[in-house]
Design brief:
By secondary structure, this protein is mainly beta. It has 1 helix and 16 strands. The chain has a 4-stranded antiparallel beta sheet, with no helix packed on it. A 4-stranded antiparallel beta sheet has the order 5-16-8-13, with no helix packed on it. Strands 6-15-9-12 form a 4-stranded antiparallel beta sheet, with no helix packed on it. The longest helix is centred in the first third of the chain and has 10 residues. The chain starts with 20 loop residues before the first helix and ends with a strand.
Protein backbone atom coordinates (compact mmCIF):
# COMPACT_ATOMS: atom_id res chain seq x y z
CA UNK A 1 0.00 0.00 0.00
CA UNK A 2 1.54 3.35 -1.01
CA UNK A 3 2.29 5.71 1.84
CA UNK A 4 2.39 8.83 -0.35
CA UNK A 5 0.34 10.11 -3.26
CA UNK A 6 2.95 9.05 -5.82
CA UNK A 7 2.85 6.50 -8.65
CA UNK A 8 6.31 5.23 -9.60
CA UNK A 9 5.28 2.34 -11.87
CA UNK A 10 2.29 0.78 -13.56
CA UNK A 11 2.83 -2.51 -15.40
CA UNK A 12 1.27 -2.91 -18.87
CA UNK A 13 0.62 -6.58 -19.58
CA UNK A 14 1.33 -8.06 -23.00
CA UNK A 15 -1.12 -10.41 -24.68
CA UNK A 16 -0.33 -14.14 -24.52
CA UNK A 17 2.13 -13.74 -21.62
CA UNK A 18 1.84 -14.92 -18.07
CA UNK A 19 0.94 -12.39 -15.43
CA UNK A 20 3.40 -12.38 -12.54
CA UNK A 21 2.10 -12.03 -9.02
CA UNK A 22 4.51 -9.18 -8.24
CA UNK A 23 3.39 -7.21 -11.29
CA UNK A 24 -0.30 -7.74 -10.50
CA UNK A 25 0.19 -6.78 -6.86
CA UNK A 26 2.14 -3.70 -7.94
CA UNK A 27 -0.78 -2.55 -10.11
CA UNK A 28 -3.28 -3.26 -7.33
CA UNK A 29 -1.23 -1.14 -4.93
CA UNK A 30 -1.82 1.86 -7.18
CA UNK A 31 -5.49 1.71 -6.16
CA UNK A 32 -4.90 1.20 -2.45
CA UNK A 33 -4.57 4.15 -0.11
CA UNK A 34 -4.14 7.26 -2.27
CA UNK A 35 -6.06 7.15 -5.53
CA UNK A 36 -4.62 9.43 -8.18
CA UNK A 37 -4.98 9.37 -11.98
CA UNK A 38 -2.59 7.21 -14.01
CA UNK A 39 -1.23 8.62 -17.24
CA UNK A 40 -2.62 6.72 -20.21
CA UNK A 41 0.72 6.75 -22.07
CA UNK A 42 3.31 6.26 -19.34
CA UNK A 43 3.75 4.46 -16.03
CA UNK A 44 3.44 7.66 -13.98
CA UNK A 45 0.66 9.77 -12.52
CA UNK A 46 -1.07 12.45 -14.59
CA UNK A 47 -2.07 15.98 -13.59
CA UNK A 48 -5.07 18.05 -14.75
CA UNK A 49 -5.79 15.51 -17.48
CA UNK A 50 -8.58 13.20 -16.29
CA UNK A 51 -12.05 13.61 -14.78
CA UNK A 52 -13.79 11.88 -11.91
CA UNK A 53 -17.09 10.90 -13.51
CA UNK A 54 -18.55 12.70 -16.53
CA UNK A 55 -21.50 14.85 -17.53
CA UNK A 56 -23.71 11.79 -18.00
CA UNK A 57 -22.00 9.38 -15.59
CA UNK A 58 -21.82 11.00 -12.18
CA UNK A 59 -20.86 9.76 -8.74
CA UNK A 60 -23.80 9.77 -6.36
CA UNK A 61 -22.23 10.95 -3.08
CA UNK A 62 -18.76 12.16 -2.19
CA UNK A 63 -17.45 11.88 1.38
CA UNK A 64 -14.51 14.19 1.97
CA UNK A 65 -12.94 16.26 4.71
CA UNK A 66 -11.42 18.92 2.43
CA UNK A 67 -12.03 19.89 -1.21
CA UNK A 68 -9.38 21.74 -3.22
CA UNK A 69 -10.68 23.73 -6.19
CA UNK A 70 -8.38 25.17 -8.84
CA UNK A 71 -5.13 24.24 -10.53
CA UNK A 72 -3.05 24.34 -7.34
CA UNK A 73 -3.52 23.60 -3.64
CA UNK A 74 -3.16 27.33 -2.94
CA UNK A 75 -6.43 28.08 -4.76
CA UNK A 76 -9.86 27.64 -3.15
CA UNK A 77 -10.28 25.11 -0.36
CA UNK A 78 -13.54 24.02 1.30
CA UNK A 79 -13.41 22.12 4.56
CA UNK A 80 -15.35 21.30 7.71
CA UNK A 81 -13.63 22.88 10.69
CA UNK A 82 -14.33 20.20 13.29
CA UNK A 83 -11.77 21.66 15.73
CA UNK A 84 -14.08 24.53 16.76
CA UNK A 85 -17.85 24.61 16.26
CA UNK A 86 -18.17 22.76 12.97
CA UNK A 87 -17.88 25.76 10.65
CA UNK A 88 -17.88 25.18 6.91
CA UNK A 89 -14.76 27.08 5.82
CA UNK A 90 -14.07 28.63 2.43
CA UNK A 91 -10.37 29.44 2.21
CA UNK A 92 -8.37 31.21 -0.51
CA UNK A 93 -4.61 30.76 -0.64
CA UNK A 94 -4.72 29.10 2.77
CA UNK A 95 -6.53 31.96 4.54
CA UNK A 96 -10.17 32.07 5.65
CA UNK A 97 -12.37 33.98 3.22
CA UNK A 98 -15.84 33.01 4.48
CA UNK A 99 -17.15 30.73 7.21
CA UNK A 100 -20.63 29.28 7.33
CA UNK A 101 -21.49 28.61 10.95
CA UNK A 102 -23.86 25.70 11.54
CA UNK A 103 -25.82 27.70 14.08
CA UNK A 104 -25.55 31.18 12.61
CA UNK A 105 -24.96 30.84 8.88
CA UNK A 106 -24.21 34.10 7.08
CA UNK A 107 -26.57 36.08 9.28
CA UNK A 108 -27.75 36.39 12.85
CA UNK A 109 -30.86 37.89 14.44
CA UNK A 110 -31.68 39.60 17.73
CA UNK A 111 -34.57 39.19 20.08
CA UNK A 112 -37.65 41.37 19.68
CA UNK A 113 -37.60 45.04 20.71
CA UNK A 114 -40.98 44.82 22.43
CA UNK A 115 -42.47 48.32 22.66
CA UNK A 116 -39.27 50.32 23.21
CA UNK A 117 -39.70 54.05 23.82
CA UNK A 118 -37.31 56.93 24.45
CA UNK A 119 -38.65 60.41 25.18
CA UNK A 120 -35.22 62.02 25.68
CA UNK A 121 -32.53 63.37 23.37
CA UNK A 122 -29.93 60.95 24.80
CA UNK A 123 -29.07 57.85 22.80
CA UNK A 124 -30.03 54.61 24.56
CA UNK A 125 -29.64 51.01 23.46
CA UNK A 126 -32.88 49.73 21.92
CA UNK A 127 -34.07 46.59 23.69
CA UNK A 128 -32.28 43.47 22.35
CA UNK A 129 -30.63 45.40 19.49
CA UNK A 130 -27.11 44.00 19.96
CA UNK A 131 -25.57 41.21 17.85
CA UNK A 132 -22.19 39.49 17.55
CA UNK A 133 -21.01 38.36 14.12
CA UNK A 134 -17.69 37.22 12.65
CA UNK A 135 -16.56 38.42 9.23
CA UNK A 136 -13.47 37.43 7.26
CA UNK A 137 -13.38 40.68 5.32
CA UNK A 138 -16.90 40.60 3.85
CA UNK A 139 -19.17 43.66 4.28
CA UNK A 140 -21.74 43.41 7.07
CA UNK A 141 -25.30 44.60 6.52
CA UNK A 142 -27.34 45.74 9.52
CA UNK A 143 -31.08 45.95 8.96
CA UNK A 144 -34.44 45.80 10.74
CA UNK A 145 -37.54 43.71 10.09
CA UNK A 146 -40.88 43.42 11.83
CA UNK A 147 -41.78 40.25 13.70
CA UNK A 148 -44.54 37.93 12.56
CA UNK A 149 -46.93 39.59 14.99
CA UNK A 150 -48.42 41.48 12.06
CA UNK A 151 -51.53 43.61 12.17
CA UNK A 152 -53.82 42.81 15.06
CA UNK A 153 -57.22 43.89 16.25
CA UNK A 154 -55.46 45.85 18.98
CA UNK A 155 -54.82 49.40 17.80
CA UNK A 156 -51.18 50.40 17.74
CA UNK A 157 -49.76 46.92 18.18
CA UNK A 158 -48.23 46.22 14.77
CA UNK A 159 -44.45 46.30 13.99
CA UNK A 160 -43.37 49.89 13.45
CA UNK A 161 -40.81 52.65 13.81
CA UNK A 162 -42.66 55.65 15.15
CA UNK A 163 -42.20 59.21 16.35
CA UNK A 164 -44.83 61.57 17.68
CA UNK A 165 -45.05 65.01 19.23
CA UNK A 166 -47.84 66.87 20.98
CA UNK A 167 -48.56 70.51 20.11
CA UNK A 168 -45.48 70.65 17.87
CA UNK A 169 -45.30 70.67 14.08
CA UNK A 170 -42.26 68.34 13.92
CA UNK A 171 -41.95 64.69 14.89
CA UNK A 172 -38.56 63.03 14.51
CA UNK A 173 -36.22 60.30 15.70
CA UNK A 174 -32.67 59.14 15.18
CA UNK A 175 -30.82 55.81 15.13
CA UNK A 176 -27.11 55.37 15.83
CA UNK A 177 -25.32 52.21 14.66
CA UNK A 178 -22.22 51.15 16.56
CA UNK A 179 -19.57 48.56 15.83
CA UNK A 180 -18.23 47.73 19.29
CA UNK A 181 -17.94 51.24 20.76
CA UNK A 182 -17.45 53.07 17.44
CA UNK A 183 -20.31 54.94 15.78
CA UNK A 184 -20.41 53.88 12.11
CA UNK A 185 -23.68 55.44 11.00
CA UNK A 186 -26.57 57.69 11.94
CA UNK A 187 -30.04 57.40 10.43
CA UNK A 188 -32.63 60.12 10.96
CA UNK A 189 -36.31 60.43 10.09
CA UNK A 190 -38.80 63.24 10.60
CA UNK A 191 -42.00 64.85 9.37
CA UNK A 192 -43.05 68.48 9.57
CA UNK A 193 -46.50 69.96 9.45
CA UNK A 194 -47.32 73.39 8.09
CA UNK A 195 -46.28 76.08 10.56
CA UNK A 196 -49.74 77.60 10.43
CA UNK A 197 -51.51 74.29 11.11
CA UNK A 198 -50.87 74.32 14.89
CA UNK A 199 -51.35 70.55 15.08
CA UNK A 200 -52.27 68.93 18.38
CA UNK A 201 -50.45 65.73 17.31
CA UNK A 202 -47.73 65.22 14.69
CA UNK A 203 -46.82 61.63 13.82
CA UNK A 204 -44.42 59.80 11.51
CA UNK A 205 -44.85 56.04 11.13
CA UNK A 206 -42.31 53.94 9.14
CA UNK A 207 -42.05 50.24 8.25
CA UNK A 208 -39.07 48.56 9.96
CA UNK A 209 -37.67 47.43 6.59
CA UNK A 210 -36.89 51.07 5.72
CA UNK A 211 -33.78 50.87 7.92
CA UNK A 212 -30.54 49.36 6.50
CA UNK A 213 -26.82 50.05 6.83
CA UNK A 214 -23.85 48.31 5.15
CA UNK A 215 -20.50 48.34 6.96
CA UNK A 216 -17.72 48.09 4.34
CA UNK A 217 -14.81 49.00 6.59
CA UNK A 218 -14.91 46.46 9.42
CA UNK A 219 -12.17 44.14 8.12
CA UNK A 220 -11.74 40.58 9.37
CA UNK A 221 -12.75 40.03 12.99
CA UNK A 222 -15.56 39.41 15.46
CA UNK A 223 -17.68 42.46 16.23
CA UNK A 224 -20.64 43.49 18.34
CA UNK A 225 -23.12 45.62 16.41
CA UNK A 226 -25.67 47.67 18.36
CA UNK A 227 -28.41 50.14 17.51
CA UNK A 228 -29.29 53.08 19.77
CA UNK A 229 -32.26 55.42 19.48
CA UNK A 230 -33.40 58.83 20.68
CA UNK A 231 -35.82 61.67 20.08
CA UNK A 232 -34.41 64.78 18.45
CA UNK A 233 -36.62 67.06 20.52
CA UNK A 234 -37.13 66.57 24.23
CA UNK A 235 -40.61 65.41 25.15
CA UNK A 236 -41.32 63.75 21.82
CA UNK A 237 -41.95 60.00 21.65
CA UNK A 238 -39.53 57.73 19.82
CA UNK A 239 -40.85 54.16 19.56
CA UNK A 240 -39.66 50.86 18.06
CA UNK A 241 -42.37 48.21 18.35
CA UNK A 242 -42.17 44.44 17.63
CA UNK A 243 -39.00 44.73 15.55
CA UNK A 244 -35.86 42.57 15.29
CA UNK A 245 -32.32 43.51 14.30
CA UNK A 246 -30.40 41.44 11.75
CA UNK A 247 -26.71 41.26 10.82
CA UNK A 248 -25.84 39.66 7.49
CA UNK A 249 -22.55 38.92 5.73
CA UNK A 250 -22.18 39.80 2.06
Amino acid sequence: MPSTATITSFYSFTANTKARAGEVNNNFSVYRGHIIPVNTDTASASNLSHDLGSTDHRWNNAYASTLYLGNTTTSWRIKDDTTTVGDLMFQLNGADAVRFNKGQGFWTVSGESGAYTNNTTTFALITNFSLTITTYGSPVEIFLAGTNKGWTSTAGDSPAIYAASVNQNIASGQFEIRRDSTTIGVWQFQTQADDSASPSLTVIHLPPSSFSHIDNSAGAGTYVYSIYGRSLVAGQTFLVRHVKMYAKLW
